[in-house]
Amino acid sequence: MFILAGALWGMMYIAFGEPLAGSIPLSYAAISLLSVLLFGLTHRYRFFRFSQLTLILLLPFLLMLSLGGFVNSSAVILWSLICPLGALLFDEPRHAPRWLLAYLGLLVLSGVLQPYVSARDRPLYPTLVTIFFVMNIAGVSTIALALLAYFVDQKDLFLGLLRVEQDKSENLLLNILPKEIAAILKNENRTIADHFAGASIMFADMVNFTPLSASMPPAQMVDLLNEIFTYFDSLVEKYGVEKIRTIGDSYMVASGVPRPRPDHAQLLVRMALEMRDYVSQHTFCGNHKVNFRIGINSGPVVAGVIGRKKFIYDLWGDAVNTASRMESHGAAGKVQITRETYALIKDEFVCEPRGMVNVKGKGEMEVWYVAGAKG
Asked: Which residues of the chain register pLDDT less than 50?
């Protein structure tokens, strides 16, 4: 755009009898064209940028002097304003004030030199001066608007990219933490630990995982676990419960945290039954059959986040330990529950009493297997 404007202005000045003035914008057009070609060959952007800003700053000033000052040149020095504007967009922002000071310095110098350059033998015709006033103001305004439009477009582009990255970070955080906890963690610098009077906790663990993993390549074992746990994750979404973590072949889920709900036990048992049925009805990675022990307990827990590095949303309390014992003392392909969970679900599910079981660290406990939903 600058090259075309320089060529047009130069030819017009020459056509109206101002060869010296016309040579200045024509020289700019020629030098700019050469600098563009040089940049294409060398890719030295800093030199290209500096040369362009310098030409845009100085040549309108020289053109103004050759035409006889502000009025006779139709305020052509306004073109120099594009220099600090361009520096703001295409150079480092800290450099823009220097170019602005240089532009203001040329304006002051122009005012000082005005009495010495205004007395010309053959000034341009008043009508021609007016035409160039319109052209100069319109040209500078158009280019300034184009630069601002470029700035707005780039700003919108960068904001869009920033939003994409923020969404990625947000989704990643929500894959680690519940939405409510993530919001607190982003806005508050405190330990998060909330007490819940009623919640249910489930542990599921693959039976004979060690010999199975020894018989399979590690990558295939990872594929098998990924296939199973991905389905379990879909059940977490379906039932609106909270996945706490996976460790090896162990899968831990909680219901009733961080959003309390009265049917926490029922939801978790329904999910456990779907997990049991899915695993029993499918083979994985070819023809491998697997089984899970599943244990559930209900009771009060404390849930929250501790620390600031590689944190997770975790649960603490005797109810959590007991749920883990229900899994480890359970049977393959069975969903084992405690009396606390049984009391909450017995009206909606068929439960088979297993009797008293000696649980490590707990002593004798009465437990049940959940066979399925009633009706």
From this structure: none
In a 13 Å sphere around the CA of 279, the CA atoms on its Cβ side amount to: 27
Exposed/middle/buried for residue 78 (C-beta within 10 Å: 0-12, 13-18, 19+): buried
Residue 126's CB is within 10 A of a number of other CB atoms, namely 10
Distance in angstroms (rounded) separating the CA atoms of residues 224 and 219:
9
Q: Single out the catalytic residue among 243, 293, 325, 334.
A: 325
Please report the DSSP string for 249-290 in residue order: TEEEEEESSSS--TTHHHHHHHHHHHHHHHHHH--BTTTB--
Whether the Cβ atoms of residue 244 and residue 234 lie closer than 8 Å to each other: no
How crowded is residue 304: how many other Cβ atoms within 10 Å of its Cβ?
A: 19
- Provide the pLDDT for residue 343: 95
The whole model's pTM is what? 0.62
Q: Which domains does the chain have, with CATH numbers?
A: 2-166 (no CATH), 190-373 (3.30.70.1230)
334 noted as active-site residue = no
What DSSP state is assigned to residue 205?
E
Q: Is 325 a catalytic residue?
A: yes
pLDDT recorded at residue 233: 95
Cα separation, 341 vs 266, whole angstroms: 9
